[in-house]
Amino acid sequence: MADELLRASGLESGYGGVQVLWGADIAVAAGETVVLLGANGAGKTTLLRVLMGLMPAWRGTITLDGAAVTHETTDQRVRRGVAYMSELGVFPDMTIADNLRIGSRFAPRAARAAAIDALYARFPDLAGKRRSLAGSLSGGQRKMLGIAKALAGRPRLLVMDEPSAGLSPLYVAEVLAVLGRFRAEGLALLIAEQNVAFLDLADRVCTLERGRTVFTGTTAELHANDALERAYFGLT
Amino acid sequence: MLYHAVLGGLVYGLYFTLVGLGLNLMFGVMRIVNLAHGDVIMLGAYAAWALFTAWAVHPLLAALAILLAFTAIGIPVYYLIVPRLLRARDAEMLSLILFFGLQQIIEAAATIAFGTTERSIPGRVLGHHPVRILGQVLPAAWVWAGAVSAVCVAALYLYLYHSPPGMLTRAVMSNREEAKASGIDVDRVCSLAFGIALALAGIAGVFAPFMLGSVTPAIGPDLNIAAFAVIVIGTLGNPIGTVLGGIIYGVSLMLMQTFLSAWANLLPNLLLIAVLLVRPSGLLGRRVRRA
Asked: What class, spelled out in words, does domain B2-288 have in CATH?
Protein backbone atom coordinates (compact mmCIF):
# COMPACT_ATOMS: atom_id res chain seq x y z
CA MET A 1 0.00 0.00 0.00
CA ALA A 2 1.32 3.43 -0.94
CA ASP A 3 2.35 5.63 2.03
CA GLU A 4 1.13 3.13 4.56
CA LEU A 5 0.50 4.83 7.88
CA LEU A 6 -0.96 2.13 10.10
CA ARG A 7 -1.00 -1.64 9.73
CA ALA A 8 -2.22 -4.22 12.19
CA SER A 9 -1.94 -7.93 11.48
CA GLY A 10 -3.37 -10.93 13.28
CA LEU A 11 -4.37 -9.03 16.39
CA GLU A 12 -5.69 -11.06 19.29
CA SER A 13 -6.77 -9.52 22.57
CA GLY A 14 -9.54 -9.48 25.17
CA TYR A 15 -10.60 -8.65 28.70
CA GLY A 16 -9.32 -10.88 31.51
CA GLY A 17 -9.73 -14.41 30.22
CA VAL A 18 -12.33 -13.52 27.59
CA GLN A 19 -10.88 -13.28 24.09
CA VAL A 20 -12.57 -10.69 21.88
CA LEU A 21 -10.22 -10.31 18.92
CA TRP A 22 -9.36 -13.51 17.07
CA GLY A 23 -7.02 -12.27 14.36
CA ALA A 24 -8.06 -8.81 13.22
CA ASP A 25 -6.21 -7.11 10.36
CA ILE A 26 -6.51 -3.50 9.29
CA ALA A 27 -4.43 -0.96 7.40
CA VAL A 28 -4.75 2.77 6.76
CA ALA A 29 -2.71 4.73 4.21
CA ALA A 30 -1.80 8.40 4.52
CA GLY A 31 -4.82 10.56 3.72
CA GLU A 32 -7.11 7.54 3.46
CA THR A 33 -10.46 7.07 5.21
CA VAL A 34 -11.23 3.57 6.42
CA VAL A 35 -14.58 2.78 8.01
CA LEU A 36 -14.62 -0.20 10.35
CA LEU A 37 -18.11 -1.71 10.29
CA GLY A 38 -19.41 -4.26 12.73
CA ALA A 39 -22.40 -5.11 14.88
CA ASN A 40 -22.47 -4.55 18.65
CA GLY A 41 -19.95 -6.88 20.26
CA ALA A 42 -18.02 -7.51 17.04
CA GLY A 43 -14.88 -6.11 18.70
CA LYS A 44 -14.63 -2.68 17.04
CA THR A 45 -13.89 -0.75 20.24
CA THR A 46 -11.50 -3.45 21.42
CA LEU A 47 -9.63 -3.30 18.11
CA LEU A 48 -9.30 0.48 18.34
CA ARG A 49 -8.17 0.27 21.97
CA VAL A 50 -5.51 -2.28 21.06
CA LEU A 51 -4.39 -0.13 18.11
CA MET A 52 -4.01 2.82 20.50
CA GLY A 53 -2.18 0.84 23.19
CA LEU A 54 -5.03 1.16 25.68
CA MET A 55 -5.18 -2.64 25.81
CA PRO A 56 -2.33 -5.08 25.20
CA ALA A 57 -2.19 -7.17 22.04
CA TRP A 58 -1.95 -10.82 23.04
CA ARG A 59 -0.75 -11.73 19.56
CA GLY A 60 -0.14 -9.92 16.30
CA THR A 61 1.76 -6.81 15.28
CA ILE A 62 1.03 -3.11 14.85
CA THR A 63 3.22 -0.76 12.80
CA LEU A 64 3.06 3.00 12.35
CA ASP A 65 5.03 4.36 9.40
CA GLY A 66 6.65 0.94 9.19
CA ALA A 67 7.95 1.05 12.77
CA ALA A 68 6.76 -1.65 15.19
CA VAL A 69 4.69 -0.03 17.95
CA THR A 70 2.94 -3.13 19.32
CA HIS A 71 4.46 -2.66 22.76
CA GLU A 72 4.55 1.15 22.81
CA THR A 73 2.37 3.11 25.24
CA THR A 74 -0.57 5.23 24.12
CA ASP A 75 1.28 8.51 24.58
CA GLN A 76 4.16 7.22 22.42
CA ARG A 77 1.69 6.34 19.65
CA VAL A 78 -0.04 9.73 19.94
CA ARG A 79 3.38 11.37 19.64
CA ARG A 80 3.79 9.52 16.34
CA GLY A 81 0.78 11.41 14.97
CA VAL A 82 -2.21 9.21 15.79
CA ALA A 83 -5.03 10.80 17.80
CA TYR A 84 -7.88 8.84 19.34
CA MET A 85 -11.40 10.06 19.95
CA SER A 86 -13.21 7.72 22.33
CA GLU A 87 -17.00 7.65 22.62
CA LEU A 88 -16.73 10.18 25.49
CA GLY A 89 -14.08 12.19 23.67
CA VAL A 90 -13.80 15.10 26.14
CA PHE A 91 -13.11 15.88 29.79
CA PRO A 92 -16.59 16.94 30.95
CA ASP A 93 -15.36 18.62 34.16
CA MET A 94 -12.88 20.84 32.33
CA THR A 95 -13.42 23.94 30.23
CA ILE A 96 -13.46 23.88 26.46
CA ALA A 97 -10.19 25.84 26.47
CA ASP A 98 -8.53 23.29 28.78
CA ASN A 99 -9.77 20.41 26.63
CA LEU A 100 -8.18 21.96 23.56
CA ARG A 101 -4.97 22.78 25.43
CA ILE A 102 -4.67 19.13 26.45
CA GLY A 103 -5.22 18.03 22.85
CA SER A 104 -2.66 20.54 21.56
CA ARG A 105 0.19 19.15 23.68
CA PHE A 106 1.28 16.97 20.77
CA ALA A 107 1.66 19.86 18.33
CA PRO A 108 5.05 21.61 18.23
CA ARG A 109 5.17 24.08 21.15
CA ALA A 110 5.34 27.14 18.89
CA ALA A 111 2.33 25.98 16.85
CA ARG A 112 -0.05 25.17 19.72
CA ALA A 113 -1.75 28.56 20.08
CA ALA A 114 -2.18 28.83 16.30
CA ALA A 115 -3.62 25.30 16.16
CA ILE A 116 -6.20 26.17 18.83
CA ASP A 117 -7.09 29.49 17.18
CA ALA A 118 -7.56 27.70 13.84
CA LEU A 119 -9.92 25.22 15.51
CA TYR A 120 -11.93 28.02 17.15
CA ALA A 121 -12.27 29.56 13.69
CA ARG A 122 -13.63 26.27 12.34
CA PHE A 123 -15.89 25.61 15.34
CA PRO A 124 -17.33 29.06 16.15
CA ASP A 125 -19.85 27.51 18.59
CA LEU A 126 -16.93 26.46 20.77
CA ALA A 127 -15.11 29.77 20.44
CA GLY A 128 -17.95 31.58 22.17
CA LYS A 129 -17.93 29.20 25.11
CA ARG A 130 -14.21 28.74 25.84
CA ARG A 131 -14.68 29.04 29.60
CA SER A 132 -17.74 26.77 29.73
CA LEU A 133 -17.39 23.24 31.05
CA ALA A 134 -17.39 20.60 28.32
CA GLY A 135 -20.06 18.77 30.32
CA SER A 136 -22.44 21.69 29.83
CA LEU A 137 -22.45 21.29 26.02
CA SER A 138 -25.13 19.49 24.04
CA GLY A 139 -24.31 16.03 22.67
CA GLY A 140 -23.54 17.39 19.20
CA GLN A 141 -21.38 20.23 20.48
CA ARG A 142 -19.55 17.80 22.73
CA LYS A 143 -18.81 15.62 19.71
CA MET A 144 -17.45 18.66 17.86
CA LEU A 145 -15.26 19.47 20.86
CA GLY A 146 -14.05 15.87 20.87
CA ILE A 147 -13.04 16.20 17.22
CA ALA A 148 -11.41 19.59 17.84
CA LYS A 149 -9.55 18.26 20.89
CA ALA A 150 -8.23 15.27 18.96
CA LEU A 151 -7.15 17.49 16.05
CA ALA A 152 -5.52 20.17 18.23
CA GLY A 153 -2.34 18.07 18.30
CA ARG A 154 -2.22 18.13 14.48
CA PRO A 155 -2.30 14.35 13.99
CA ARG A 156 -1.95 12.62 10.63
CA LEU A 157 -4.45 9.90 11.55
CA LEU A 158 -7.60 10.33 13.61
CA VAL A 159 -9.02 7.11 15.08
CA MET A 160 -12.67 7.51 16.11
CA ASP A 161 -14.93 5.22 18.09
CA GLU A 162 -18.58 5.54 16.99
CA PRO A 163 -18.73 9.31 16.41
CA SER A 164 -22.47 9.00 15.69
CA ALA A 165 -23.28 7.42 19.08
CA GLY A 166 -26.08 9.27 20.84
CA LEU A 167 -26.47 11.90 18.11
CA SER A 168 -29.61 12.91 16.27
CA PRO A 169 -29.53 12.48 12.44
CA LEU A 170 -29.06 16.25 12.11
CA TYR A 171 -25.87 16.19 14.18
CA VAL A 172 -24.67 13.02 12.41
CA ALA A 173 -24.87 14.96 9.14
CA GLU A 174 -22.91 17.81 10.73
CA VAL A 175 -20.22 15.45 12.01
CA LEU A 176 -19.99 13.90 8.55
CA ALA A 177 -19.63 17.33 6.94
CA VAL A 178 -16.88 18.35 9.38
CA LEU A 179 -14.97 15.10 8.91
CA GLY A 180 -15.37 15.42 5.14
CA ARG A 181 -13.65 18.81 5.23
CA PHE A 182 -10.70 17.52 7.28
CA ARG A 183 -10.48 14.45 5.01
CA ALA A 184 -10.23 16.73 1.98
CA GLU A 185 -7.26 18.44 3.65
CA GLY A 186 -5.37 15.13 3.82
CA LEU A 187 -6.21 13.85 7.30
CA ALA A 188 -6.39 10.05 7.45
CA LEU A 189 -9.40 8.67 9.30
CA LEU A 190 -10.16 5.30 10.85
CA ILE A 191 -13.78 5.32 11.99
CA ALA A 192 -15.47 2.46 13.84
CA GLU A 193 -19.20 2.74 13.18
CA GLN A 194 -22.50 0.94 12.97
CA ASN A 195 -24.08 3.84 11.09
CA VAL A 196 -23.71 3.11 7.38
CA ALA A 197 -24.05 6.82 6.58
CA PHE A 198 -20.31 7.02 7.33
CA LEU A 199 -19.62 4.86 4.25
CA ASP A 200 -20.03 8.08 2.24
CA LEU A 201 -16.65 9.14 3.62
CA ALA A 202 -14.90 5.81 3.10
CA ASP A 203 -12.12 5.06 0.66
CA ARG A 204 -12.14 1.53 2.01
CA VAL A 205 -14.35 -0.50 4.32
CA CYS A 206 -13.34 -3.16 6.78
CA THR A 207 -15.92 -5.40 8.44
CA LEU A 208 -15.41 -7.16 11.72
CA GLU A 209 -17.37 -10.19 12.88
CA ARG A 210 -16.73 -11.91 16.20
CA GLY A 211 -13.28 -10.37 16.43
CA ARG A 212 -12.16 -11.34 12.90
CA THR A 213 -11.78 -9.16 9.83
CA VAL A 214 -14.09 -10.74 7.26
CA PHE A 215 -13.97 -8.15 4.48
CA THR A 216 -11.68 -5.39 3.31
CA GLY A 217 -12.40 -3.47 0.15
CA THR A 218 -14.03 -0.44 -1.39
CA THR A 219 -17.63 0.58 -0.71
CA ALA A 220 -18.54 -0.62 -4.21
CA GLU A 221 -17.04 -4.03 -3.44
CA LEU A 222 -19.01 -4.15 -0.20
CA HIS A 223 -22.22 -3.43 -2.09
CA ALA A 224 -21.34 -6.14 -4.60
CA ASN A 225 -21.07 -8.72 -1.81
CA ASP A 226 -24.60 -10.03 -1.27
CA ALA A 227 -23.99 -11.49 2.19
CA LEU A 228 -22.45 -8.29 3.52
CA GLU A 229 -25.00 -6.15 1.75
CA ARG A 230 -27.73 -8.04 3.62
CA ALA A 231 -25.85 -7.91 6.94
CA TYR A 232 -25.16 -4.18 6.94
CA PHE A 233 -27.90 -2.68 4.82
CA GLY A 234 -30.72 -5.07 5.67
CA LEU A 235 -31.50 -5.59 2.00
CA THR A 236 -32.95 -8.84 0.74
CA MET B 1 -15.02 34.17 74.37
CA LEU B 2 -17.14 33.34 71.31
CA TYR B 3 -15.08 35.64 69.10
CA HIS B 4 -11.84 34.13 70.38
CA ALA B 5 -13.16 30.61 69.77
CA VAL B 6 -14.19 31.48 66.20
CA LEU B 7 -10.89 33.19 65.35
CA GLY B 8 -8.87 30.40 66.97
CA GLY B 9 -11.05 27.90 65.12
CA LEU B 10 -10.31 29.57 61.81
CA VAL B 11 -6.57 29.28 62.34
CA TYR B 12 -6.89 25.77 63.74
CA GLY B 13 -9.13 24.91 60.79
CA LEU B 14 -6.52 26.12 58.33
CA TYR B 15 -4.13 23.63 59.90
CA PHE B 16 -6.69 20.84 59.60
CA THR B 17 -7.16 21.80 55.96
CA LEU B 18 -3.51 20.84 55.53
CA VAL B 19 -4.12 17.63 57.48
CA GLY B 20 -6.80 16.59 54.95
CA LEU B 21 -5.38 18.14 51.78
CA GLY B 22 -3.06 15.31 50.74
CA LEU B 23 -5.68 12.66 51.45
CA ASN B 24 -8.19 14.46 49.26
CA LEU B 25 -5.69 15.02 46.45
CA MET B 26 -4.82 11.32 46.43
CA PHE B 27 -8.47 10.28 46.40
CA GLY B 28 -9.38 12.86 43.77
CA VAL B 29 -6.64 11.83 41.36
CA MET B 30 -6.28 8.10 41.99
CA ARG B 31 -9.57 7.14 43.64
CA ILE B 32 -7.64 5.32 46.34
CA VAL B 33 -8.23 5.69 50.05
CA ASN B 34 -4.97 6.10 51.95
CA LEU B 35 -5.67 4.79 55.43
CA ALA B 36 -1.98 5.33 56.22
CA HIS B 37 -2.37 9.10 55.67
CA GLY B 38 -2.34 9.84 59.42
CA ASP B 39 0.82 7.80 59.79
CA VAL B 40 2.54 9.77 57.04
CA ILE B 41 1.68 12.87 59.10
CA MET B 42 3.18 11.09 62.12
CA LEU B 43 6.36 10.36 60.13
CA GLY B 44 6.57 14.05 59.21
CA ALA B 45 6.25 14.93 62.89
CA TYR B 46 9.04 12.57 63.87
CA ALA B 47 11.23 13.78 61.01
CA ALA B 48 10.82 17.38 62.25
CA TRP B 49 11.43 16.30 65.85
CA ALA B 50 14.55 14.32 64.89
CA LEU B 51 15.94 17.19 62.79
CA PHE B 52 15.33 19.63 65.63
CA THR B 53 16.73 17.35 68.34
CA ALA B 54 19.83 16.30 66.42
CA TRP B 55 20.78 19.51 64.61
CA ALA B 56 18.41 22.18 65.92
CA VAL B 57 16.87 22.50 62.46
CA HIS B 58 14.11 25.13 62.51
CA PRO B 59 10.66 23.58 61.80
CA LEU B 60 10.11 25.84 58.77
CA LEU B 61 13.37 24.60 57.27
CA ALA B 62 12.35 21.06 58.21
CA ALA B 63 9.05 21.60 56.36
CA LEU B 64 10.98 22.53 53.21
CA ALA B 65 13.25 19.48 53.53
CA ILE B 66 10.24 17.23 54.14
CA LEU B 67 8.45 18.68 51.11
CA LEU B 68 11.35 17.64 48.89
CA ALA B 69 12.11 14.33 50.61
CA PHE B 70 8.51 13.08 50.82
CA THR B 71 7.81 14.03 47.19
CA ALA B 72 10.97 12.22 46.10
CA ILE B 73 10.10 9.14 48.18
CA GLY B 74 6.45 9.21 47.08
CA ILE B 75 7.17 8.87 43.36
CA PRO B 76 8.92 5.44 43.50
CA VAL B 77 6.46 4.27 46.18
CA TYR B 78 3.64 5.10 43.74
CA TYR B 79 5.18 2.94 41.02
CA LEU B 80 5.71 0.13 43.53
CA ILE B 81 2.13 0.05 44.80
CA VAL B 82 -0.50 2.00 42.92
CA PRO B 83 -0.45 0.89 39.24
CA ARG B 84 -0.93 -2.74 40.37
CA LEU B 85 -3.70 -1.65 42.73
CA LEU B 86 -5.53 0.29 40.03
CA ARG B 87 -5.49 -2.68 37.68
CA ALA B 88 -7.59 -4.60 40.21
CA ARG B 89 -11.33 -4.86 39.71
CA ASP B 90 -12.23 -3.15 43.01
CA ALA B 91 -9.33 -0.76 43.47
CA GLU B 92 -11.00 1.40 46.14
CA MET B 93 -11.73 -1.56 48.42
CA LEU B 94 -8.31 -3.09 47.84
CA SER B 95 -6.66 0.26 48.63
CA LEU B 96 -8.47 0.30 51.99
CA ILE B 97 -7.04 -3.10 52.88
CA LEU B 98 -3.56 -2.42 51.54
CA PHE B 99 -3.14 0.98 53.18
CA PHE B 100 -4.60 -0.35 56.45
CA GLY B 101 -1.80 -2.93 56.39
CA LEU B 102 0.75 -0.23 55.59
CA GLN B 103 -0.58 1.90 58.44
CA GLN B 104 -0.02 -0.97 60.89
CA ILE B 105 3.52 -1.51 59.58
CA ILE B 106 4.45 2.19 59.75
CA GLU B 107 3.09 2.53 63.29
CA ALA B 108 4.91 -0.62 64.45
CA ALA B 109 8.17 0.47 62.82
CA ALA B 110 7.90 3.95 64.35
CA THR B 111 7.25 2.42 67.77
CA ILE B 112 10.37 0.29 67.44
CA ALA B 113 12.42 3.27 66.25
CA PHE B 114 11.15 6.00 68.59
CA GLY B 115 9.43 4.19 71.46
CA THR B 116 6.09 5.22 72.89
CA THR B 117 7.34 8.27 74.79
CA GLU B 118 5.56 11.49 73.88
CA ARG B 119 7.81 13.80 71.85
CA SER B 120 7.46 17.53 71.40
CA ILE B 121 9.28 20.56 70.05
CA PRO B 122 9.30 23.66 72.31
CA GLY B 123 6.69 26.18 71.16
CA ARG B 124 9.19 29.04 71.57
CA VAL B 125 11.03 27.77 68.46
CA LEU B 126 8.23 29.32 66.41
CA GLY B 127 8.05 32.54 68.45
CA HIS B 128 8.58 33.57 72.05
CA HIS B 129 5.40 35.58 72.34
CA PRO B 130 1.78 35.00 71.39
CA VAL B 131 0.54 36.85 68.33
CA ARG B 132 -2.27 39.41 68.48
CA ILE B 133 -4.69 39.14 65.53
CA LEU B 134 -7.87 41.25 65.33
CA GLY B 135 -7.67 41.94 69.04
CA GLN B 136 -7.31 38.28 70.00
CA VAL B 137 -4.17 36.58 71.26
CA LEU B 138 -3.16 33.29 69.61
CA PRO B 139 -0.10 31.05 70.11
CA ALA B 140 2.62 31.88 67.57
CA ALA B 141 2.89 28.20 66.58
CA TRP B 142 -0.78 28.18 65.60
CA VAL B 143 -0.34 31.26 63.47
CA TRP B 144 2.70 29.73 61.73
CA ALA B 145 0.84 26.45 61.18
CA GLY B 146 -2.14 28.33 59.74
CA ALA B 147 0.08 30.48 57.54
CA VAL B 148 2.03 27.50 56.17
CA SER B 149 -1.26 25.68 55.53
CA ALA B 150 -2.58 28.69 53.61
CA VAL B 151 0.62 28.76 51.53
CA CYS B 152 0.24 25.02 50.80
CA VAL B 153 -3.38 25.47 49.71
CA ALA B 154 -2.41 28.40 47.47
CA ALA B 155 0.51 26.44 46.02
CA LEU B 156 -1.71 23.44 45.29
CA TYR B 157 -4.29 25.71 43.68
CA LEU B 158 -1.61 27.29 41.47
CA TYR B 159 -0.26 23.86 40.62
CA LEU B 160 -3.67 22.47 39.65
CA TYR B 161 -5.09 25.48 37.83
CA HIS B 162 -2.07 27.34 36.47
CA SER B 163 0.58 24.79 35.55
CA PRO B 164 0.81 22.29 32.67
CA PRO B 165 1.26 19.21 34.91
CA GLY B 166 -1.60 20.50 37.07
CA MET B 167 -3.88 20.68 34.03
CA LEU B 168 -3.03 17.06 33.23
CA THR B 169 -3.71 16.16 36.87
CA ARG B 170 -7.18 17.70 36.56
CA ALA B 171 -7.70 15.73 33.35
CA VAL B 172 -6.94 12.49 35.21
CA MET B 173 -9.29 13.61 38.00
CA SER B 174 -12.00 14.28 35.42
CA ASN B 175 -11.74 10.90 33.67
CA ARG B 176 -8.77 8.56 33.95
CA GLU B 177 -9.68 6.50 30.86
CA GLU B 178 -10.17 9.57 28.70
CA ALA B 179 -6.83 10.89 29.97
CA LYS B 180 -5.11 7.69 28.81
CA ALA B 181 -6.95 7.83 25.49
CA SER B 182 -5.77 11.43 25.04
CA GLY B 183 -2.14 10.34 25.28
CA ILE B 184 -1.52 11.55 28.82
CA ASP B 185 1.11 9.52 30.69
CA VAL B 186 -1.29 8.86 33.56
CA ASP B 187 1.25 7.11 35.76
CA ARG B 188 3.67 10.01 35.54
CA VAL B 189 0.91 12.49 36.46
CA CYS B 190 -0.35 10.30 39.32
CA SER B 191 3.12 9.59 40.70
CA LEU B 192 3.74 13.32 41.05
CA ALA B 193 0.33 13.80 42.69
CA PHE B 194 1.09 10.89 45.03
CA GLY B 195 4.44 12.48 45.98
CA ILE B 196 2.78 15.87 46.54
CA ALA B 197 0.05 14.25 48.66
CA LEU B 198 2.65 12.60 50.89
CA ALA B 199 4.62 15.85 51.09
CA LEU B 200 1.51 17.78 52.20
CA ALA B 201 0.92 15.16 54.89
CA GLY B 202 4.57 15.39 55.93
CA ILE B 203 4.38 19.19 56.25
CA ALA B 204 1.21 18.82 58.34
CA GLY B 205 3.29 16.50 60.51
CA VAL B 206 5.94 19.18 61.12
CA PHE B 207 3.34 21.26 62.95
CA ALA B 208 1.65 18.34 64.72
CA PRO B 209 3.89 18.56 67.82
CA PHE B 210 2.79 22.20 68.23
CA MET B 211 -0.89 21.77 67.39
CA LEU B 212 -1.41 18.54 69.33
CA GLY B 213 1.03 19.35 72.15
CA SER B 214 3.11 16.22 71.58
CA VAL B 215 3.29 13.20 69.27
CA THR B 216 3.60 9.44 69.65
CA PRO B 217 3.66 6.72 66.96
CA ALA B 218 -0.04 6.10 67.72
CA ILE B 219 -1.40 9.50 66.57
CA GLY B 220 -2.06 8.29 63.00
CA PRO B 221 -5.58 6.81 63.32
CA ASP B 222 -6.97 9.88 65.18
CA LEU B 223 -5.47 12.20 62.57
CA ASN B 224 -6.96 9.99 59.89
CA ILE B 225 -10.46 10.38 61.34
CA ALA B 226 -10.00 14.15 61.50
CA ALA B 227 -8.71 14.18 57.91
CA PHE B 228 -11.66 12.10 56.71
CA ALA B 229 -14.11 14.40 58.51
CA VAL B 230 -12.49 17.43 56.87
CA ILE B 231 -12.53 16.04 53.33
CA VAL B 232 -16.00 14.53 53.54
CA ILE B 233 -17.38 17.88 54.78
CA GLY B 234 -15.50 19.77 52.08
CA THR B 235 -16.40 17.31 49.27
CA LEU B 236 -14.50 14.14 48.59
CA GLY B 237 -12.22 14.34 45.57
CA ASN B 238 -12.16 18.15 45.50
CA PRO B 239 -8.80 19.20 47.02
CA ILE B 240 -9.66 22.89 47.11
CA GLY B 241 -12.99 22.12 48.83
CA THR B 242 -10.88 20.81 51.71
CA VAL B 243 -10.49 24.42 52.87
CA LEU B 244 -14.19 24.68 53.69
CA GLY B 245 -14.09 21.32 55.47
CA GLY B 246 -11.01 22.30 57.47
CA ILE B 247 -12.45 25.61 58.60
CA ILE B 248 -15.83 24.13 59.59
CA TYR B 249 -13.99 21.41 61.47
CA GLY B 250 -11.64 23.86 63.21
CA VAL B 251 -14.32 26.35 64.22
CA SER B 252 -16.67 23.59 65.43
CA LEU B 253 -13.89 22.01 67.47
CA MET B 254 -12.95 25.29 69.11
CA LEU B 255 -16.60 26.09 69.90
CA MET B 256 -17.03 22.62 71.41
CA GLN B 257 -13.85 22.93 73.46
CA THR B 258 -14.96 26.33 74.70
CA PHE B 259 -18.58 25.59 75.53
CA LEU B 260 -18.92 21.78 75.66
CA SER B 261 -15.39 20.56 76.24
CA ALA B 262 -16.39 17.06 77.40
CA TRP B 263 -17.90 16.42 73.95
CA ALA B 264 -15.08 17.89 71.90
CA ASN B 265 -13.29 14.60 71.18
CA LEU B 266 -16.45 13.18 69.66
CA LEU B 267 -16.70 15.99 67.16
CA PRO B 268 -14.81 14.47 64.18
CA ASN B 269 -16.95 11.33 64.28
CA LEU B 270 -20.18 13.29 64.80
CA LEU B 271 -19.43 15.64 61.90
CA LEU B 272 -18.45 12.73 59.67
CA ILE B 273 -21.66 10.83 60.41
CA ALA B 274 -23.83 13.95 60.14
CA VAL B 275 -22.45 14.94 56.73
CA LEU B 276 -22.63 11.38 55.39
CA LEU B 277 -26.28 11.12 56.47
CA VAL B 278 -27.48 14.57 55.46
CA ARG B 279 -25.31 15.48 52.48
CA PRO B 280 -23.11 12.57 51.41
CA SER B 281 -21.65 14.47 48.46
CA GLY B 282 -20.14 17.05 50.86
CA LEU B 283 -21.27 20.58 51.62
CA LEU B 284 -20.08 21.89 48.26
CA GLY B 285 -21.84 19.00 46.55
CA ARG B 286 -21.19 17.76 43.05
CA ARG B 287 -21.78 21.19 41.54
CA VAL B 288 -18.26 22.24 42.34
CA ARG B 289 -16.69 18.84 42.14
CA ARG B 290 -14.97 19.84 38.96
CA ALA B 291 -11.43 19.27 37.90
From this structure: mainly alpha
